[in-house]
Amino acid sequence: MWHFARGLAFAATGKLTQGEAEHQAVTESLESIAQDETFDMSLNKARDVLKIAADVLAAKLSMARNEGNQAIAQLRDAVAIQDSLRYAEPPSWFYPVRESLGAVLFLERQVSEAEQVFREDLQRNPRNPRSLFGLLQVLRSRETPHDAEFVKAELDIAWKSDLQQLNLRNF
After folding, report:
1. Could you give the angle at the alpha carbon of 91 between the alpha carbons of 132 and 5, nearest 5°?
2. Is the dihedral of CA 108, 10, 78, 91 positive or negative?
């Protein structure tokens, strides 16, 4: 996970060579873990959790290289794995990857699909502020003010900090 975090930081700052090296380290860790090893105290496989990390980091690197379709495919893989994880408290993966998928779909102008993904996440994670924010951006882009006002009211309840902290580019 240390390599995952470093890779995200490198991708966010445009240091793609270093980010790719960190992605390689995550991938090597993934390959070296036994098939039956579990993650922490959950019944989830450590390989599944690391595969989500590898896919999310790969998507972040793809977006930094302006390869949106590749990022979408990588995030779809991560979402599928996350959906297969068993319930755990706390969750084995620390955030809903649909947030990232919706953001990338929106940034790649696949607005209808982005809306669907944000709504799916809100079904699974009610009042998730990042998905509410993403859905708000979708509705504003479609110029549906009534729906946007409703989502904005929900977002105001769910997110108590400055909304400028939220940004779809920082998926």
Report:
1. 80
2. negative
Q: Which residue in 72, 35, 69, 36 sits closest to 55, CA to CA?
A: 72
Burial class (CB in 10 A: 0-12, 13-18, 19+), 66: exposed
pLDDT digits (tens, 9 = 90+) for 35-86: 999 998 889 999 999 999 999 999 999 999 999 999 999 999 999 999 999 9
State residue 109 phi and psi, 5-degree precision. Answer: 65, 25
Residue 38 pairs in a beta bridge with 45
Question: Are 114 and 133 within 8 A, CB to CB?
Answer: no
Query: How far is the C-alpha of 164 from the C-alpha of 171, rounded, in Å?
Result: 14
* pLDDT tens sequence across 110-158: 999 999 999 999 999 999 999 999 999 999 999 999 999 999 999 999 9
Q: Which of 124, 128, 98, 125 is nearest to 113 (CA)?
A: 98
Phi and psi dihedrals of 54, rounded to 5?
Answer: -65, -45
Q: Is 131 helix (H, G, I), strand (E, B) or coil?
A: helix
